[in-house]
Design goal:
Length: 472
């Protein structure tokens, strides 16, 4: 198969008339269906099906040596997942009904109009894809191990939630449909997108762009390029990222920030796989796989009318959600060691040891910036590290700063804070003494009974915590 041919496996054309095969071939290629196999002798179909995986078969009924009905019967029996579209001049209702009963996907009459045949082929390809992906999903979720764990080597984790994410990625990576990757800031959405690209086996590039803040013209120019003279300063044509990603993957980050006008442009491209460079009236086609990511709740945005529903459902054919670090704190020791290795190499220092109390301290923190925040903490601590053991002071300073920022934000918008605060759902407010006791108990629980760490969580000294415990 030629590089970039579509679909992945050939469309088999079976007809005894050479000019009919040629006309079908031209019509399909003109509409982006370039992976085509011709067969002019019905006797050769059996050997083709045995040696080549076929995506869709277009089959004539009236042929010498072996009729289309015989071929259809065998294909339905031996290759039940193969869609067979009957393309014939036999305009007989009884024959059409008989073919459908024997497993034909569709029945199209000659002379064939492209407007009738192409949608039928499109539906057949979609069903083929769904069957393949459902089978892959089933096998991956039943399996306990990854087929290609090396593709996720850049993501340090051992948590079951992340292993499920990886298995899902393996199941959907080979498809053509978009993938929506969601998760909070700093969880590693681009790393997942890159793993999906590598798993797909696509030979083209992985092209990433952050679309947040792009106005409509810049978005269109960035993705689709422009022709010479399209606007002032466009003294030469420029290809867009869609063209650059041909045969590969186009990753659009922060898709939740896309304007309505840009959403329409993206939807049109996804639906037709065609696009127009700015200033050009000649359509181009692209087989780039589109992956998108956002830290926003896109399902909420589409319910509120901020994000188009049709684009939302098109993008989330497959949905990968990456859990925040606070839901997989078991990964913190693994990530800490990995980032210490990286920081030691960057600063040309020996990797330090650290007290186990540091792990307890980190596990008690909520990490609003997730893995990215932990990495920043480690590199900042390593920049000032001089002794053999890494202290926790730099980490405590960041946590205290984050706590104060949260307090300041709540004070600046008290109405929003009260409406969303957990205390608003409590029928009876606890007394000051009760609230203090509950806070201390929860802090000790989160700190695994380490009073020093618990005191830091509460914003008091260990001595003050010890005195409060004695008074209880």
């Amino acid at each position: 198969m030629a590089s970039g041919a579509y679909p992945l496996h050939p469309i088999l054309l079976v007809d005894d008339e050479a000019h009919t095969l040629a006309s079908f071939d031209i019509a399909l290629r003109a509409n982006g269906l370039t992976n085509i196999l011709r067969c002019q002798d019905g006797r050769e179909v059996e050997s083709i099906l045995k040696t080549t995986e076929i995506e869709v078969m277009l089959l004539d009924l009236m042929m010498p040596h072996r009729s289309g009905q015989e071929i259809l019967a065998q294909a339905s029996r031996d290759y039940p997942d193969l869609p067979v579209i009957i393309v014939t001049g036999v305009n007989d209702v009884g024959t059409a009904v008989q073919c459908i009963q024997h497993g034909a996907f569709d029945y199209v009459l000659k002379p064939v109009e492209a407007e009738r045949l192409l949608p039928s082929i499109g539906r057949a390809l979609e069903i083929r894809r769904l069957r393949r992906e459902n089978s892959e999903l089933s096998s991956r979720f039943l399996a306990d191990t990854l087929a290609h764990p090396e593709m996720f080597a850049a993501i340090r984790t051992g948590h079951p939630k992340m292993q499920r994410v990886f298995r899902y990625c393996e199941a959907v990576a080979g498809g053509q449909q978009p993938v929506l990757i969601s998760g909070e800031t700093g969880v590693g959405k681009e790393l997942i997108a890159l793993a999906l690209h590598q798993l797909s086996g696509r030979t083209g590039q992985f092209v990433a762009v952050n679309v947040a803040g792009l106005d409509d013209q810049v978005f269109a120019d960035t993705l689709f390029g422009h022709a010479k003279g399209a606007f002032t300063g466009a003294d030469r044509p420029r290809p867009g990222l869609v063209e650059k990603a041909a045969g590969g993957t186009l990753f659009l980050d922060e898709i939740g920030d896309l304007s309505h006008a840009s959403q329409v442009k993206l939807l049109r491209f996804l639906e037709g796989r065609e696009y127009y460079p700015l200033g050009s009236d000649l359509a181009k086609r692209s087989d780039a796989r589109v992956l998108v990511a956002t830290h926003k709740e896109v399902d909420t945005l589409q319910r509120e009318g901020v994000f188009r529903k049709d684009l939302y459902y098109r993008l989330r054919t497959h949905h990968v959600h990456i859990p925040p670090l606070r839901e997989r704190k078991e990964d913190i020791p693994l990530l800490l060691d990995h980032f210490l290795d990286e920081a030691a190499r960057e600063f040309h220092k020996k990797k330090p040891t650290y007290h186990k109390e540091l792990i307890t301290l980190l596990k008690g923190y909520h990490f609003p910036g997730n893995v990215r925040e932990l990495k920043a903490m480690v590199f900042d601590a390593m920049s000032g590290y001089t002794s053999r053991m890494l202290g926790a002071e730099a980490f405590r300073a960041v946590m205290a700063s984050e706590r104060q920022a949260a307090i300041n934000a709540a004070a600046a918008d008290p109405e929003q804070d009260n409406n969303g605060h957990w205390l608003a759902t409590v029928d009876r407010l606890p007394t000051i003494k009760e609230a203090t006791q509950l806070l201390i108990q929860e802090a000790l629980h989160r700190a695994s009974n380490n009073q020093r760490v618990a005191a830091h969580m509460l914003g008091i000294t260990p001595q003050a915590l010890n005195q409060r415990l004695k008074r209880q």
